[in-house]
Structure formats: C-alpha cells, structure tokens
Amino acid sequence: MDETTRWRLMVTLSRRDALKLALLGAGAWMLTPIWARGKKMPMPDFPTGERLGRVCIGGKVEVKARPDADSPTVAVLYEDAVVPWEREVVGINLHRTNQRFVQTPQGYIWAPTLQPVANKPNTPLTAFPYAKDGMWVEVTVPYVDIFLANPPARSPWLKDTSRPRLYYSQVLWVDQIKQGDDGAVWYRINERYGSYGDIFWARAEAFRPITPEEIAPISPNVENKRVVVDVNYQTMACYEGKEEVFFTRVSTGAKYNASGQAVDKWATPVGTYPIWRKLISVHMSGGTTGGGYDLPGIGWTVLFVGTGISIHSTFWHNDYGVPRSHGCVNARPEDAKWVFRWTLPVVPYDPGDVTIGMPGGTLIEVVEG
User: What is the pTM of this model?
Assistant: First the structure.
C-alpha cells in the first residue's frame, strides 16, 4: 500500500470506525496486566503512628468533642478513613453495650467503628521461600487496592464495590510474583479455598509473608484441651484440663438484624462439637440479599459445626463483646490465630487445610453462661 492510499483510508475513516478502533485500543490496554502497564501506582499515604484506626463501617462516623455520643460532633469521617489511634478510653454511649472510645488528634470515635490497624510495608520477595507453588501472606497496611486479573467479577462482594480492597490482617495465598517496568513488584492473589474464581494483582509491599514457624502448634502434646464459648457473656476461654490458659472477648451469633427484628437462625448453636476442619484462610459467603455476607481472606478458620459455624479472624468490626455474627465466633486476628495454633488437628503450611473424621479434633463447648 503506497502512502497516498494509506492517507486516503485514514481521512475517510468514519467517526463510528474511529470510535471502534479507540475502544479496541482501550480494551487491549485494560487486558494488559496491571503490573505491565508502565504506570506508576504509589502506595497510599497513611498517617504516621505506631497504632492506627480504620473506619470499618459503611456510611459516616462522627468524631466527638468528648468520649460521649451526645457530645458535639467536631468532624465526620467515612469508610476506610485512617486516623492515628492515641489511646482507648471508657466513655458514654447510651443504649450500647460497648462504652469504649478511641482518642484521636481530631477527637473521640466510638471504638466499635474503628478497626485497629498499623502501617507496616514490607520488602517484596522475588521467589517463594516456603512452598513451591506459592506462599501465605497477611496484609500489614490499613488497606491495599487490588486489581482483577480475570474479569468479569464473580464474587458478590466484588460486584457490589467500585473500589476493591483488602484490609489489615486478611490472610491470602500468593501464587505469582511479577515486576513491572517501573520496578514495582506485584503479587497475584489467588484464594485457595471457597473462592468464586476471582484472581487479583496487588502491590507486594502490602503483604507480609507468613512463615511455617509462626503457625507451628502450641502445646501439641497436652491432652484434654477444650474451648468454651459463652454466648451470654460473649467470651472464649481455652482449657488444658482444668487450667484456663487463654481468655478473650468475642462476637457470636447476632440476636437481631439491622432492622431490629429477632433472628433465631443466626444464633451460635449451644452444645459440644469436635473440630472437623481447619484452614489458614478461606473465602466465606452465605445468607440472602440484604442479610447475606461475602468475605474474602478470612484467616485462622476453625470449623466445628457441619453447617459452617467456625471460630475465625475478623477485620470488618471492632465490637467484641456484642453478638453480631451470622453464627460464627468472630475473634480478633491475634486471638483467632492463637486458637488456630493451639487446637487440633495440626495444619501444615502447604496446603494450609485439614479435614478429619470422627471423633474429630479439639472439643468446642458453646454454653449459655
């Protein structure tokens, strides 16, 4: 084709054809992996401080002049806002069980609405140190944006958000490592258990590799272990024989839904159950529209009822001591991890999942005070 013919084709291109070509180009760019696009994408600039808090509920959170829900509002924050966590104090919030407030430079925030977080970026790895096909990682920054590698979205939570993120303390499986032209390292997140099939890319600095040593069993040779969950007092205790070796507050099955209606089906079932499955991380979903849930990266999961009831890590609230789950036992990440390591069966690093038959593992006793 000579230059004259080529020029004629270009000038006679219709607006519709030009738009098609533009869309094709944009589509090709979108299909390019995020790490290969050559566009610098810096990590978020979080506040400084040893301890931070992330607004972990939808809608707005009011910052109060005093640790009193009826005191003047001095500022308003929205979901995923991150603030310095100076200290926790006891205040006044009538008609609420939790009376804790977090003091921040701006004022006081009701503690259940703030997830305790930290900003601890990591040096990216270029190879998997502990298993041939991947590694377990934990998010160690308040949040990290993730980018879908295999659209369209499949998970309900992913379809309902325009800003997909992972949050502090979530546990995921990484199965690929790539470095972009700008030098940034990206991890490919591919959930091993419970996934709808979505795969993501995320900046590697946000994730701390979990070592096999830190999931090693605690007191594995001790007999007569049992976990007691009290749904009246919202507590969890671990016993070796008659000696209590661990105690914490938890959140068990909610008694009421968001509309204030009684919901018996969310109750954590009272009784004694052996652990039948444990997973380092799992994608959890269930329920129905409006009352359902869909949550990726749930760490340190200990299943003890066949319907899926478990003890597990929690990142979406800080309201321990109050019933608010769909039947599971919500625990702080560090508490869930301790129970995961202390109970039987033992879970190997790879594959990070164990299922056993009867008589099962450590007994979980769910009691009513």
Answer: 0.88
